[in-house]
Each structure stands twice: as structure tokens, then as C-alpha cells.
Design brief:
The complex is a heterodimer. Chain A is an alpha/beta fold. Chain A contains nine helices and six strands; from the N terminus they run E-H-E-H-H-E-H-E-H-H-E-E-H-H-H. The longest helix of chain A has 19 residues. Chain A is globular, with a radius of gyration of 16 Å. Classes of the chains: A alpha/beta, B mainly alpha.
Chain lengths: 210, 618
Amino acid sequence: MPSNTGKVMKKILILFGHPAFKRSTINAALRKAVENLEGITFHDLYARYPDFLIDVSHEQKLCESHDIIVFQHPFYWYSTPAIIKEWFDLVLEHTWSYGVAGTALAGKITFQALTAGGNLSNYRAGGLNMFTIKELTTPFRATANLCQMEWLPPFAVLGIHQGLPKEECTRHAEDYRKILIALRDNRLDLTKARDCELLNYERKSIINEV
Amino acid sequence: MEQFLLKLLIFLAAAVIAVPLARKFKLGSVLGYLIAGIVIGPFGLSLIDDIETVMHFTEFGVVMMLFLVGLELKPSLLWEMRTPILGMGGSQVMITFVAIGLACAFFLPWKQAVAVGLILALSSTAIVLQTLREKGLMNTSPGKSIFSVLLFQDLAFIPMLAILPLLAAAVVHTDTHHGSGFFDITTFPAYLRLIVVLLAFGLIYIVGKYGSRPIFRAIAASRVREVFVAAALALVIGISLLMTAVGLSPALGTFMAGVVLADSEYRHELESDIEPFKGLLLGIFFISIGASLNFILIIQQLWQIGGLVTGLILIKAIILFAIAKAFKMPGNERLLFALALAQGGEFAFVLFSFAKINGVLPHSLTETLISVVAISMFLAPLLFLLHDRLIAPRLQKTGAERPADDIQHGGRSVILAGFGRLGTDLGRLLISAGVKPVILDHNEANVDILRRFGFEVYYGDATRLDLLESAGAADAELIIITLGDHEKSMELVKLVQKHYPQLKIAVNAVDRGAAFEFMDLGVTTIRRETFGSALTLGQDALQLLGFDPYEAYKIRRLFRKKDKDTMPELYRIHREDEDKYISMYQQHNADLTELMKKDREIDMEELDKAWAAANPET
């Protein structure tokens, strides 16, 4: 992509966690769309640490060498699969990512790319899940805040429970790819993005086309 | 041809009858051979003649034995033994030589006294090593000291051959010398001889280190077993000839070759190929020693020979004991060391006839002394027996200076019995977790090496109550048993249960059957030694086949859990089958069948249900 107009291309780290990845069509599609892009490191946590023994210093170095950190995972019980929680617990050390001296992640952009069974109407006040996705992911937002990171709303693929047609899958994957490329090439309007509900639902308005 | 076969038959038959009998009465095979020799010899049934030729031929068994000993001794280990070899061996040969020489000087001219002193300083490598190996003492600390002395004697044999002719009363010119027929190196000047000798050793080293592997690989690839046997024999014989040609002891040469090949992957193959030949040759060699006992001479000079034998054994034993003490050997090992080496050796036969030929010693004297040496060799296995039966048990009882180390750090909460392949890693794990076990191991070499690396390893047989006691079994919390030997482990479990009922037991079982036996004893923490690796390797295999790493991991964990769950059931069925008195083989098959049936019932779908119920495709 020659579109990064003179600016330095940002480096993106995708921390991926899915304990049954083989059965997830949507995550396979999302992964496939971005995995081999220039400037993107796709890091499969379950494959790397099947026994959950996370190599903390390796993970910290990975984070340090990237500008954008994306957590891609299914939305289990309004949260993440176990290994991503384990990752937070171990990797986000005091004096590394938070606390007075902990500025390793400061200024880095972060967001979640999640897939959920319920559709938009379930994720609202009065709906089956009572809260919006944005509300339910506030713990993540607070985490990012504590680490002085640049938080963005989640990229969310919803309604998987009803079945997702193939073209839908492809569309989401393409959206994901476009957003990541825009972020990488500094073409995403961060101020606008911060205020939207879900990154992918307002994709067109936040990406500056060249 | 028939003559030869008949003779062979007599030797073999004698061995076949005598050795099992001797072993039955716990006399050891060497004594069995010797007695067989007396029985079939000229003073017994008179079935064989030309014993000297047989003896010379079968002496080759000693060469093979030293090759085998070398194979078990890596260069680094040999280097470690340099102090005992030079120190103990050197002082033994020198002091014994001086003592016997001085004693003889009262009766003989000084040159003859020197010759006799030199020759009688040597002990019997054949008898002593064979007995040590049979008793499994080779790797113990007294065994190693004894071996060191024998090795030095082997080295000393060479200069003795050079010195003896100088002691001739009158210069006898003779072309019979010790060298082989290839070329006569004794005519070379000394420096040239040294160069030739060094070249010979260099050749053995280079061929052994670099040449042997491709050669053996090519031979092994032919998959014709006897060719490998032929190659192994050719190797040993070739080195013997080379050594003889340069005027060195063939035994020493093959020993060096053995050491060089100790690291080779073909070591075991070589061992198992040479072993039977060595056994047979040595057996016949011992028989011929028995047969060579000249009873007429012995009866004629009964008092003289009896006195000389007693004197020889006493002088040698006392000197050896003093050396053992000087080199700070533990108290109860000193007597074994002294008695083991207190005889004359087969080298004496060679050297006496060599001395006779060179006009150093008169015929009548060598005849008498050869009988003395032969009788002392005959007595050697008996002295071992004496030590085993009478002395060792007493020393054990007093136990003040056991060979087992005195354990100063007793009272730790964990005892780790057995520090072999499994115990080593287990011990490392515990130590890394800050748990410092008192480690007991029966392998001397292990103990020394590991201790140098800062492990707290103690030498001793863990099934000995006194050792357990001093390891702090009374106050310890846990004993982990990782002995390689199942019988020993069972023994230890029973011992612990009887004397230290408070001690928790964790045990390694060699297989499922062994695990069942531990379950019989009520042990609950049992791990089968290869099970963990099997499953881990299985996980690796699944991953290589394209399974998701996490999936492979989960399958392994689930399988292990299921296996554990089925264990009590399998145990019950196993014992029921046993009550039906089916054969071991049938029992094994029945166990395996049950195992496979249970495996088929394992529900791997358990894995699929997770993360799937609500969100099938997230």
C-alpha cells in the first residue's frame, strides 16, 4: 500500500484468542483477511500457549514493538476467553504498563475485535443482554485508561447465533481489513472513531479515503 | 580334527558340569572352572594334555575382558581414575616388589630375588575382574580401586619384560623373545621404540575415534549379524597383534581401544558380540590353570610350597591393606581390597617361563613358584568368599565406617531414592522449587559427578534400613522412590511401611503391572515412568498432524484423566483374572484387552461441547 503519504506506517499487533478456533467460521474469515497484511503481527495465544504458560517478557516485548494492539476474540460471557484474561493478569505488570513508572503502553491505540451470538437488538437496555456492547466492554476501556492507552470502541460482529451467510462473513472480514489498514496508514479519524458505537458500524465515516 | 573336537568337548562338558554346581553352592564361576580343571587334568581323570598350549591360547580371554572393561569406561572416567591408578597401583607394585625381593634375598642371589619380586608383585587380572563383574562390584568404590591397581600392573608388565633379561646370571643368547613374528622392535634404539609405541597408540585412537563409526555403520547396514561379530573379533585380535608387535601388552592395547569406543553408539553391540567369546576363553583358561597344578611337585614340597603361598598372600594382603589405609579407603572396603589382590597372576606364568628362557631363574625354582602362584590363584575366589561370608557381615554390623556417606544434612523433609535418568530430572525439579531432597543412589559414578554439580547425593543402597535411618526417614515427610529396579522398589516400599509408617510414599512404576503391585501394598501416589513422555509425544504427534495446539493439549490432558479414572477398574479386573490362575502371557493380553476396551469408551466429545452450546460459530 503506497497510501501512507510520507508518514511512517504503524505496526499492529493482533492478540487472538479462541479455544475452539477450528469451529469458528467468522473468526477464520476475519483472521484470513488480515493475517498476512504488511505491518500486522497475528499472534494466536491458544496455539502459542496451549498450557497457559504465558511468556511474559516475550509478550511485553511484542507490545513494545507495536503501535496498535488489537484483541480479537469471541465475546464469552460478556468478556474474553480465559487465555486473554490470563494474558491481562500476567503481562500487564505494575511498573510496566501501569503505576507511576509503567508507561510501556502509553499512547498505543487499542480496541477489541469481538464476535458475539446475539444481535444488536439483544445488546441494549431492555434486550436479552440488558446492556450495549460498548457498556459491557467498559472493563476493557478502564484497563486501557489505566495503561494510558488510546482506547477505541470495539469492532463487533453480532448476530452469529442466527447464522451468518457467507457474504455477510466476507463483508465483515473486508471491513475488518479496511479498518486495520486505515489505522496502519494513519487514515483513521481517531476523534470521530472514539465517539462511535462500534467501529465497523460507522466505518465509512471514520476512514479518510485518499 | 576329531582330536581337537574331543578336547573341546571335554573342556566344555567340564565347564557345563562344574560351573552350575559351583554357583549352586555360591562359590562363583571362577572356582568352578578351576575345580573342573583339576578334575579333568593330569592329576585327576587325566582327560587332557598339552595344557600349556591351551593356556597360552585362552589367555586371549583376558585381552577380550579388558576390551570389555574399557568399553564401560569413558575416557573422562579413566582420567578421573588417574590418581588411584598411579598412586595405588604404583605403590602396590613398588612396595610389594621391594618386600618380596628383600624376603627372597635371604635365600636367593640378588638378581634372582629382584626377578621373583617383580613377577610376584602382579595379581590376577583374569580371576579378580571376572569375580568382581560376577559380584557386580565393578562400579563400586572398592571395585574401582582394585581395577586401578590391576590396570597399573598391566602397564608394569611391559617394563618388566624389558628388565628381566638384564638380570640374567649369564648372558644367554636366544632368539625366543616375547615379540610376535612381524618385526623385531627390540633391535631398535630406545627413542625409535618409543616413537613406534606412540604411533601404535595414536593409530588405535584415530581409528577408534574417527574410523570405527563409518566402518561399523557400513557393516551394521549389511544386516548380517555374524559379519559384525567377525568385525568385532578382528578388531580385538588386530589390536592384540599390533600391540605384541610393538612390544606392549595386548590387554593394555585392547583396553585403550575399548575406552576410545566407550562413547560409540556400537558399544553395546560390541559388548554383546565379544562377551560370549571372552566368557568361553576365560573359562577354558581357568580350567587350564586348574589342570596345570602339579600335584606331585606340590606333595613333594608340601611344606615349602604351603609356606610360600601363605607368605605370598600375607605379604601382599598386608601391603594392600596399608595402601588402602594410606589412600583413606573406608574401613570396611580395605579388607576386600587387600584380599582381592593378594594372589599371583597369570602374567607370572608368562614371566617365569620368560625368565627361565633368559637364564634369570633356574628351572626348579620356576617350577615351584609357578605352583605357588597357581595355588594362590586357586585360593583367590576362596578369599572373596571368605570376605563375603565372614568379614563383610561383621563390618556391616559395626557399621561405624560404612561405605555409604555419612549424611550430615539428614532431617530434610524429602528423601529421593534413586537418582538415575528419572530421579535426576525429578531432583532438578524439586531443587528448582526450593525443595532440597536427601538423595540416595547406588551408582558411585553418578554420585561423584552429581555432587560436583552441587547436588546433595549420597552413595548407598536405599533398601538398607541403617541408610534410611541416617537419611532422616524417621523425621522426613515424604520418600520418592525412583529406583530402576522394581523388586528393589517393592522392597523399599515394604521397608518404609513397616518402619516409618508416617512417611508418605510416591513411587515410580516401570509399567502398569508394577503399578498394580504397588497398589497391592496400598501405595496411592504411583506414576508409570514412560506414561508422561508417551502422552507428551502423542500431543506433539497430533500437533504435527495439523491439530490445533490447544486441541492437542486438551486431548492429552483428557486422556490422562480418563486413564487415571479407569485404573481402579483395570486393577480389579487384573486381580480377578489373577485369581483364575491364568498364565502371565494371558494375563498381559487380558490387561491389554481391557485397556483398549476402556479407551474406546473415552468420550472425547466432552471437548466439543465446551464453547459450543450457545455460540456455535463465534
